[in-house]
Amino acid sequence: MKEQVQNASGDAGTPLLAIQGLRTWFETDRGIVRAVDGIDLDVRRGECLGVVGESGSGKSATFASVMGLIRKPGRIVEGSIRFDGTELTSLDDRARRAMRGRDLAMTMQDALTALNPALRVGTQIIEVLRAHDQAASRSAATARAIELMQLVGIPAAESRIADYPHQFSGGMRQRIMIAIALACRPRLLIADEPTTALDVTIQAQVLDLIAGLRAKLGMSVVLITHNLGVVAAYCDRVAVLYAGQVVELGPTAEVIAAPRHPYTEGLLRSLPKLEDLDHPIEPIVGQVPDLISAPEGCRFAARCPHRRDSCAAAVAMRHVSPGRQVRCVLAEGAAP
Ligand SMILES: Nc1ncnc2c1ncn2[C@@H]1O[C@H](COP(=O)(O)OP(=O)(O)OP(=O)(O)O)[C@@H](O)[C@H]1O
Ligand SMILES: [Mg+2]
Which ligand is closest to the CA of 69, given by its number? Predict the structure, then answer.
C-alpha cells in the first residue's frame, strides 16, 4: 500500500495539497445541492491555511472530499485532488483509508458525535494507532496513547485514558479528537471549527496547541472557522468561500488589511472592533443563494453594494497581485 500513496518527489516547491476544479454535489429530494462548485485551492508545505465563509458555504464538504469521506447522497462529480503528487480521487477505498490518519487527518466539527460514545477514549486512540501499525504491541500503543493525551494537554492522562467521551468537557473532547488526528503524525491536519463550541479561553488554548504542534511536527494545517479574528492570529493565508466557491485568496495580513472582494469586505465590517466597541456591527444584508439554483454569474451579486450588469456572467478567479486572487469583475487583473 505504501508505495501506492508515496510520492517520488518531496519537492518543497509543489503544494502538499492541490485541489483543482472540485465539484461535490448532494442529490436531495429538492434537487442537486452544488455544495462545492468549482473549488481551486492549494495547501503549501508547513503553512496554516484559514478557510472562512458563512454557514453552508461548502467548507466542510470541500475537506470531507479531500478526506474521502463524502457519502451518498453526495459525490465528487468533477475535479482533481492531489496530495504530494498522488491523485486521491482515483484511489480505491482501501488506499484512501490507509492515507487517512497517516498522511491527512481531520478533526470534525462536533467532537461529541465524532467520537464513539460507547468506547473509552484510550481505546479509540489505540484503535487508530494499531490500524496503521499492526505490529505495535498493545502496551506500546497504550503508552503512546497516554503520550498523545499528554501532548494535547489532558491532565492525569494515565487515568483518564479509561474514561468515556461524555466524561470530558467540550474542550477536552476537542483535544481528544486532536490527539486521535495526530496519532499517526499526519502531514496535513484539517481542523474543522475546532473551537466553535468552546469558551474563549479554551478556544485560545486549543488553537495555541494546534499552532505549537504544527511548529513541532512540521505539518501543514487547514483551519476551518467562522472567525476572522482566529484567522488573523493563526493563519499564513486565507481562503474566503462563498456559496461553494473560493471568492478571495491571499496572505492573511494583506486580505484583512485590504480585502478585494465585496463579500470579504462585508465579513470584515461585520466583525466587532475591540478599539471601537460602541460602533455598531454591520451584518451583510441578504441571504446566501440556494445552492440548488445558484446564479450563473457572481453568486454574491444579489447582496453586493457594487453590483453591475457584468456580474450576471460567470466570473473566474483573477490574479490581482502576487499570491492574491479574487473572483470579482471589479478586481483589476495583474500577472500571476
Ligand atoms: N449529506 C448531505 N446531504 C445534503 N446536503 C448536504 C449534505 N452535507 C452537506 N450538504 C449541503 O452542502 C452545503 C455545504 O455544506 P457544508 O457542511 O460544507 O457547509 P459549511 O461551510 O461547512 O457550513 P458550517 O459553517 O455550517 O459548518 C450546505 O448547503 C449543506 O446543506
Ligand atoms: Mg462545516
Answer: 1
Nearest to 331 by CA among 270, 258, 267: 258
Question: Among 154, 185, 216, where does a domain finish?
Answer: 185
In-domain check, residue 79: no
Of 160, 185, 210, which residue constitutes the final position of a domain?
185
Residues in the chain: 336
Atom of ligand 1 nearest to the CA of 64: 18
Atom of ligand 1 nearest to the CA of 36: 14
The kind and range of the H/E element at 37 are strand 31-43
Give buried/exposed letters for 254-264 (b at 16+ CB in 10 A, else e).
bbbeebbbbbb
Residue 26 falls inside a structural domain: no
Q: Please indicate whether residue 55, judged by its CB atom, sits closer than 6 Å to ligand 1.
A: yes
By most ligand atoms within 8 Å of CB, the mutation choice from 34, 59, 77 for ligand 1 is 59
What range does the domain containing 244 cover?
45-71+90-103+189-326
Flag whether 11 is in a domain.
no
Rounded distance from Cα 181 to ligand 1 centre (Å)? 22
Q: 234 and 125 share a domain?
A: no
Q: What is the pLDDT of residues 139-167, one digit of tens each?
A: 999 999 999 999 888 999 999 999 999 99
The preferred substitution site among 39, 55, 107 for testing ligand 1, maximizing ligand atoms within 8 Å of CB, is 55
Q: Which residue has the cell 518531496?
A: 10
Average pLDDT over residues 223-236: 92
Q: Per-residue pLDDT tens for 232-278? A: 999 999 999 999 999 999 999 999 999 999 999 999 888 766 666 66
**Ligand 1 center to residue 57 CA distance, Å?**
7
The backbone region for 58, taken as left when phi is positive above 0, alpha when psi lies in -120 to 50, beta otherwise, is: left
With a cut of 70, say whether residue 134 has pLDDT above it: yes
List the residue whose alpha carbon is closest to atom 12 of ligand 1: 35
Looking at residue 3, what is its pLDDT?
Answer: 37
**Cα 71 to middle of ligand 2, angstroms:** 15
Q: How many folded domains does the chain comprise?
A: 2
